[in-house]
Design a protein that fits this description.
The protein is mainly alpha-helical. It is built from five helices and two strands. The radius of gyration is 18 Å and the shape is elongated.
């Protein structure tokens, strides 16, 4: 009996995954823009961190995490970014990160997505599961920001428009 090997297309390609992530980042950027400056840095509910602190966490994870996945260089997680209490400064950092993610992405060959890694020297997983965590964490914090905006009487951007 002769066996035939067939190659199956992946469910999603690396390029499609990056497009998906960047769609989430675009939506998160629009959520950030919707905040009044003062509330972006000060408003919170139930002891949760203000949106600016959440954004700093997202910035601390995305590029340094992807840089590690692309190059193997581990960085310490640093959520304290210089922003001078300026939403415009954090948006500029967001935009710089968006460009850098695109640059780093192409450095990760498809076969590397299955490799085991320990991101930031402490979180064990695979390259693909780490990227999923980066995206899931952003969605989680964007959900908090949606609650803040609604509590402030501001209609957030539709979540499906990525």
């Amino acid at each position: 009996m002769e066996k035939t090997l067939t190659h199956h297309a992946p469910v999603i390609t690396p390029a499609q995954l990056l497009e998906h992530w960047q769609g989430h980042r675009n939506l998160t950027r629009r959520v950030i823009e919707a905040f009044p400056e003062k509330d972006f840095f000060e408003f919170s509910i139930g002891g949760m961190r203000p949106c600016a602190a959440l954004v700093q966490e997202l910035l601390a994870i995305a590029v340094p995490g992807l840089r590690q996945l692309a190059t193997g260089e581990t960085e310490e997680l640093n959520e304290h970014l210089k922003h001078d209490q300026s939403k415009a400064r954090l948006l500029a950092l967001w935009d710089e990160a968006t460009v850098e993610l695109n640059r780093l992405w192409v450095l990760i060959p498809e076969e590397k997505f299955q490799q085991k890694v320990i991101t930031f020297g402490q979180y064990e997983g695979t390259v693909w599961s780490s990227i999923f965590y980066f995206i899931d964490n952003e969605i989680h914090h964007r959900g908090q920001a949606y609650v803040y905006l609604r509590a402030l009487g501001i209609e957030p951007p539709p979540f499906w428009e990525r």
